[in-house]
Amino acid sequence: MSNAQPIPATPRVISPSPTPSETSEQTEGYFTRSAARRSRTKSPQPDTIREEKNKDDSEGSDSSLDKRARTRSRSPILAQADGVLVNGTTKPPRRMSGLTSRTSTGVIKKSEPLPTKHTVGLTNGNALPPQVNGHLSPYSQIKKSWREFSRSPSPLGLIPLHRHYRYLIHKHEIPRKALHVSIGFLTLQLYRAGFQTGAITPWLIGLFIPIASVDLLRHRYPTVNRFYVKCLGALMRETEVDGYNGVIWYLLGAYVALRFYPNDVGVMSILLLSWCDTAASTFGRLYGRYTIRLRRGKSLAGSLAAMCTGILAAWFFWGWLAPRTGPFPDDPVGGFMFKGVLSLPEKARELLGWSKEASTITGTTAMAVMSITTGLIASFSEFVDIFSWDDNLTIPLISSAGLWLFLKAFGS
């Protein structure tokens, strides 16, 4: 008797043989697909690099060095405030603008010294132990690399006020620049009051001697240095803590410009020092990153700012203030070089065959030429570096000499 429902056929069984890729990874016994998948996810181990030893001392260096990967830097890693460093696997992005702040997770603050092998247990072979003498910080041991830590003019950590007012005092130097600019307005006020340059230079020497003496004294005694920094830290740069105060060079440069040059040249040199240097520093820090870098610490933005400020200062002084001031009874003979007239030297006129009238400019044209020349001299004196002297000394020296030579050649 036959069954109404047909009997199903016997199913065909396929043995779980491994795939070709799994077969190549299989060593012995059965190899499951899950195990093969885990094996494939593992990164392959790099081949061992064998060192080559020179058979002769005169042969070249080890060629295996070319095969090695770059060694990891052993310098301290500065993490962001919200970044976490876990077993050296997470490397936070490097900040070029300065040190980052420290939180409770162990990130470095701007105001704190860099970690060394004495603080963190790292050994980099280069960092020296910090020397504590009241104010000198570990940054003084790293003379060439402090610009990598901060874009401000000096490393942070020496003066307490610079830590509390980082933007007002440390980065933008507002109190220092305010004092710098005020010297120019004081010079104009003394000029309007009829003070001669010969009457001002003794006061400059009278200020120079005690300030320089105190500066020498504070570098000899750390207690005096601490008190000095505590009182005048807002007007100082941190590089002046273990260096000389810029006021010394300011007074010396102003003395030379007012003592050995005519009144208008000396006054204009002080204005260029007071205003052009401040404008170059301000605009260079704000916009220098967007322009060409002329040399270390000098950008095209700062040089253009110094030139424009010099042009405006010359136009204001020679074009507006000087004609409306004086004359005074005690004015020296020949105390004013620029009188609104510029002409070619006599030898140049003879060479070109021009008459004196044809080679002479007056009025607005002469004022424009004099202003542009003053701006160029101001920009050059602010840009140039002479034996790494302080710019408070070089700017009045170069600008007064440049203006005197120009007016000696082309002035009437």
From TrEMBL:
Where is the sequence biased in composition, kind Low complexity?
20-34
* Coiled-coil ranges (or none): none
Tell me the segments the record calls region Disordered: 1-116
> What highest taxon heads this organism's lineage?
Eukaryota
Which residues does UniProt assign to the signal peptide? Answer: none
One of the record's GO molecular function terms: CTP-dependent diacylglycerol kinase activity
Q: Which UniProt keywords apply?
A: Kinase, Membrane, Transferase, Transmembrane, Transmembrane helix
Renumbered to this chain, the Basic and acidic residues biased-composition regions fall at: 48-68
Which residues span the membrane? Answer: 200-217, 243-261, 267-288, 300-321, 361-381
Q: What is its EC number?
A: 2.7.1.174
Task: Name the enzyme group at the top EC level.
Answer: transferase
Q: Which InterPro entries match?
A: Dgk1-like
Stated name of the protein: Diacylglycerol kinase
Taxonomic source organism? Lithohypha guttulata
- Gene name, per UniProt, is DGK1
